[in-house]
Design goal:
By secondary structure, this protein is of the alpha/beta class. It is built from 8 helices and 8 strands. It is globular. Bound molecules: D-xylitol-5-phosphate and zinc ion (ZN).
């Protein structure tokens, strides 16, 4: 890892009108989204169901170029690596909590041609990433309990983000859950550079403005981090 990270905004389409998924996704990309964050839930790791690789594959057929991240809120992330790679996923972000052998899952994701992200639930201490850091492209710090959009942002998670940024200045660090114009400043100041935002973007009458505002905030804060 070397160099500086960039601000990237990835809308979560979980609370969008899923019957219009490709139109909604294209609209968000046209509004300046840098990537799409696709929330996959199995009804087991989290108490909710969303969608799986068949839908992602259909979306990829309509949207050829965008960067797709799947946030795998599932009990067996190793089970879906090949189907998601076949569906055209660029980054496979999985929760480490239910996984016994994290390095093997990381290796299989890479062998399948995808970037690797590891995700931490709010109760998981951030230091656990130390042993995996050379195997991953990104760490996701959840700022809500995974499972549902529209929850309240947990500011107490910012200690994890700043710890990661202090220790890994060139790593992609993502936040997800309750992030929008009113909470972006905390995330940016702590050092997050990949910003997932669901309801704040989807429900806005001006998503382009919301995306720009968040991106500007992160870029400004990153400037301070790299001056340190
Ligand atoms: C929660 C999901 C999030 C969520 C974000 O389990 O991982 O990606 O949909 O939505 P908001 O921004 O509304 O919290
Ligand atoms: Zn998510």
């Amino acid at each position: 890892m070397s160099g500086k990270v960039k601000a990237k905004i990835g809308p979560s389409i979980l609370n969008a009108d899923l019957s219009q998924l490709s139109d909604e996704s294209q609209r968000l990309l046209d509004c300046g989204a840098d990537y799409l964050h696709l929330d996959v839930m199995d009804g087991h790791f989290v108490p909710n169901l969303s969608f799986g690789h068949p839908l992602v594959k259909c979306l990829r057929a309509k949207i050829k170029d965008a960067f797709f991240e799947t946030h795998m809120m599932v009990s067996k992330p190793q089970q879906w690596i090949t189907p998601m790679a076949d569906a055209g996923v660029n980054q496979y972000t999985f929760h480490i909590e239910p996984v016994d052998d994290v390095p093997t899952v990381c290796r299989k994701v890479k062998e399948a041609g995808m970037k690797v992200g590891i995700a931490l639930k709010p109760g998981t201490p951030v230091e656990v990433v130390t042993e995996y850091i050379d195997k991953v492209d990104m760490v996701l710090v959840m700022t809500v309990e995974p499972g549902f959009g529209g929850q309240k942002f947990m500011e107490s998670m910012m200690n994890k983000v700043s710890w990661l940024r202090e220790n890994y200045p060139a790593m992609d660090i993502e936040v997800d859950g309750g992030v929008g114009p009113s909470t972006i400043h905390c995330c940016a100041k702590a050092g997050a550079n990949m910003i997932v935002s669901g309801t704040a973007v989807i429900n806005s009458s001006n998503p382009a403005n919301v995306i720009k505002e968040m991106k500007d905030s992160v870029n400004e804060a990153l400037g301070f981090w790299y001056l340190k």
